[in-house]
From TrEMBL:
Organism from which the protein derives: Acrocarpospora phusangensis
NCBIfam families: CpaE_hom_Actino
Protein name in the entry: Septum formation initiator
GO BP: negative regulation of cell division
Domain Rv3660c-like CheY-like N-terminal as annotated: residue spans: 7-114
InterPro entries, sorted: Cellulose_synthase_operon_BcsQ, P-loop_NTPase, ParA/MinD_ATPase, Rv3660c, Rv3660c_N
One Gene Ontology cellular component annotation held by this UniProt entry: cytosol
UniProt GO molecular function: ATP binding; ATP hydrolysis activity
Lineage: Bacteria, Bacillati, Actinomycetota, Actinomycetes, Streptosporangiales
Top-level taxon of origin: Bacteria
């Protein structure tokens, strides 16, 4: 992949550019002589020109192109806009005031092709409903069909969804390493930081003291994932705080796993009342019990009503550190059907 090009001989400005690029998860090519920028002028996804070399660059008469920025460390410099026009830049960014804008520009320039990923949130109608296993199974099933998938563990008290996948020892960042992020984040950088297995990337919790996910961190992760993924699956706790509300607001659909018994329905009614102000498309996934699944869905005023089958040996497999058994198993077939119902499958063009 081509890297953005910085054209400057100002060491202080270059230090700022390298730091800002690192915050976006991007590496820069650098030239200290304007005339040497010609070979990369057409191919670099973004060109950042320091005001110190702008006149030298203009003297080389570079051909017009998009994605050229002029950067300066001198606020309100009256010569900046003249230099901006001379090099054919789209705008002038003053540092440090406009660092966040430059982070976003770097991230945009190197972002994988936009995929507008589907976001599916999953939660339990009551504790122990099996929402975490369903979340992991959906994400794993999707990734095995070639969908680029991010699985997000949003429940700090769940013990870590990486355990459900049998990957608790996988090397990579967990939520405590991510909670400070805000603003634009490159999905490529996020994926490099997190444990990734084929097309599945996982953001899980550590086994230390629980932490709160800031709204800004959840927003940054999900926005990056929607740009870089086909599918995002978020395993939610049963309470709604600012971060969970952020996830629900971005959900294409929110699945509520409901036990088909009296206690399960009563608990699910309270859970649904908590969720409804924050998300639009709520759907029921029913665990078999003493009540008819259609009656359960109707009584709760929720669409869906797909019945999640019992999977023989599931608990034993998880206790042995194995991922949920999918493929041609009842759980695997159910996940395939559910993903198809939600529109989270590959289209005929392989996308």
């Amino acid at each position: 992949m081509q890297r953005p090009l910085a054209i400057t001989d100002d060491q202080d400005l270059l230090d700022d550019l390298l730091r800002i690029a690192a915050a976006a998860g991007v590496e820069l090519d650098v030239t200290h002589v304007a005339s040497r920028a010609r070979p990369q002028w057409r191919t670099a996804p973004l060109i950042v020109v320091g005001t110190d070399l702008a006149d030298d660059l203009a003297a080389t008469a570079p051909p017009p192109r998009q994605n050229v920025l002029l950067v300066t460390r001198t606020p309100d410099d009256p010569t900046s806009w003249r230099k901006c026009v001379a090099v054919g830049a789209q705008t002038v960014l003053e540092l440090p005031a406009e660092e966040r804008l430059l982070v976003a520009e770097f991230a945009d320039a190197t972002e994988p092709s936009t995929r507008s990923g589907t976001v599916i949130c999953v939660t339990g109608g009551r504790g122990g409903a099996g929402a975490t296993v369903l979340s992991a199974s959906l994400a794993l099933s999707a990734s095995r069909t070639g969908l680029r998938t991010l699985l997000v563990d949003a429940d700090p008290l769940g013990g870590g969804i990486d355990v459900v996948l049998g990957e608790e020892d996988a090397i990579g960042a967990r939520w405590p390493d991510i909670v400070g992020r805000e603003g634009r984040v490159s999905y490529a950088a996020l994926q490099r930081a997190l444990p990734t297995f084929g097309e599945l990337t996982v953001l899980s919790w550590h086994r230390g003291e629980p932490m709160r996910i800031p709204r800004e961190a959840m927003r940054a992760v999900l926005d990056a994932a929607r740009r870089g993924c086909d599918l995002v699956v978020v395993d939610l706790p049963r309470h709604v705080d600012e971060a969970i509300a952020e996830a629900l607001a971005r959900a294409t659909a929110t699945l509520v796993l409901i036990h088909a018994d009296v206690r399960g329905v009563l608990a699910a009614a309270q859970t649904l009342a908590t969720l409804r102000p924050h998300t639009g498309d709520l759907r029921a996934v029913i665990r078999p019990g003493t009540l008819d699944p259609d009656i359960v869905a109707t009584s709760l005023g929720i669409t869906g009503g797909l019945v999640c089958p019992q999977q023989r040996g599931l608990t034993q497999a998880l206790d042995r550190g194995l991922a949920p058994p999918l493929g041609r198993t009842p759980l695997g077939k159910f996940c395939t059907t559910l993903l198809d119902t939600l529109g989270a499958t590959r289209d005929p063009d392989g996308r």
